[in-house]
Amino acid sequence: MKKITAETLMEFRFPSSPRISPDGTMTALLLKQPDMKANKYVSDIWVYDHETANTYQLTSKGNVADFTWMPCGSILFTLAGEKAEKGVSTNYYAISPKGGEAVKFCTLPVRSGMPVFLPGEEKRWLVSALTDLLTDEEAPTAGNETKARTEDYRIFEEVPFWSNGNGDVSKR
């Protein structure tokens, strides 16, 4: 068996986030691999067709951040490192799992994760939003942490944070 070197590590590919289509005929996943020139990992969506046993690459720019299946059978995805059009926003793109050009599905005016579609619904979905809830004056600084704490949100000062059954534990 050969020793793993930096060069052989660059040949590794890391599959992640396998998800089965709503009709059960396909599985999509993110395939990540190192890009030495750009000094980062690139990721694209790959699809396995259960009926034909074919595997193929669906996206090719290496900047897919995450994806989910839509109830209609299309794939909804976001791009990593995409610049916001106006302030902070998240763009979602839809593409057919059979291939073709991706089209912009929608833009949310907040940083957000992948949506969860409600059962039987194409136009209703839930998404977690990562919003900046504090103004610059309210933002916590050393010594005024209590000023920024309200019942609407909590500030975690470490990752991961822990919950002990009596509440969240941070920096303890």
Quick overview of this protein structure:
The protein has 172 residues and is mainly β.
What layout of secondary structure does this protein have?
Blueprint: H1 6-9, E1 14-20, E2 26-35, E3 40-49, E4 54-57, E5 64-69, E6 75-79, E7 90-95, E8 103-108, E9 111-112, E10 116-117, E11 125-126, E12 129-130, H2 145-148, E13 162-163, E14 168-169
Explain this structure:
- This protein has 172 residues and is mostly beta strands.
- Helix content is 5%, strand content 38%.
- It has 2 helices and 14 strands.
- The strands form 5 sheets. The protein has a 4-stranded antiparallel beta sheet with strand order 1-2-3-4, with no helix packed on it.
- The longest helix is centred in the first third of the chain and has 4 residues, at 6-9.
- The model is unreliable at 131-136 and 142-151 (pLDDT under 50).
Counted beta strands: 14
* Outline: globular
Major sheet characteristics: 4 strands, antiparallel
First-to-last CA distance: 46 Å
Q: How many H/I helical runs? A: 2
**Averaged pLDDT, please?**
79
Rg, nearest Å:
20 Å
* Helix content percent band: under 10%
Strand content: 35-45%
- What string, H for helix and E for strand, traces the elements in order? HEEEEEEEEEEEEHEE
Q: Which sequence of strands runs across the widest sheet?
A: 1-2-3-4
Structural class: mainly beta
Unreliably modeled segments:
131-136, 142-151
Task: Fill in the keyword field for this structure.
about 170 residues, 4-stranded antiparallel beta sheet, about 5% helix
